[in-house]
Every structure is written in C-alpha cells, then in structure tokens.
Amino acid sequence: MLILTSNIPVEFKSDRGCQVAVGEWYDPYSGETFTDSTELDLDHIVPLKFAHGHGGDRWSRDKRQTFANDFENLLLVKASLNRQKGAKGLDEWLPPNHAYRCEYIERFMDVIEKYGLLFIPNEKRVINRMQKACTGLAHEV
Fold it and tell me: Where would I find the H helices in the chain?
C-alpha cells in the first residue's frame, strides 16, 4: 500500500526493497502530507470489529479475509488518528478534516453495502442525517 499510494517513487531502508523508508502520502483524515512511513497506519474505513458486530460475525473465514484485505476499505492515514478512531462507526467518529467528511461517509457506506452489513436503527437515523447534509452541500456548490 505504501508503494502503490506514494505520490513520488519510494525509497527503501535497504537494497532488499522490503521496508519503505521514504515516500509522499496524503492523509485525507488530517489533510496533511507525510514523507515518513512510520507516521502512518493502514486504516480499515469500516473497522474489522465494527463489521463483526454488524453482521460480519456470520461470515465465512474467506469472506472475512476478503474484507480485511479489500483495497476499497483501506486507507493510509496519520497513525494517531487511526488509533483515535479505533473500531468506531460513523455515528461516533468522523475525520477532523471537514473537507473530507462527506467522501468518508460515502466510502464507509459503499463498503457497508458491498458486504451487506446492517446498522441498528439509531445508527441509521444519525447516518441518514449525515448523508442528507452532504447531499445538501453538494447542491450548494
């Protein structure tokens, strides 16, 4: 992921090409650009634990593995923000970068729909309001 998403050619820690040392990555959660790979984490947009509690507990081992490695659900982000987010859903956490929030909500929902995950009614109400707010913003532009 570090190699695939770097904005510039990466440099490795050794000639073996196993560990990326330097590159350039944009983190949409913070709106910051990073050049040190150790400052980044690989985030599951829909966290694994969240998915498990919303229907993923009934998945086969293969489907769980597919979900865990799905590029549509993976994003390199500032490590501290990934840890702050933890296993939270849309109703509990949004990226601090306001300009990315609507895209984050859309990506989260795309993964939810792709894997047939289900929300509890209160989560769904909150998310519906968020989606309506984003739709309203899109019409203002």
Answer: 2-5, 48-52, 61-68, 79-85, 101-114, 121-140
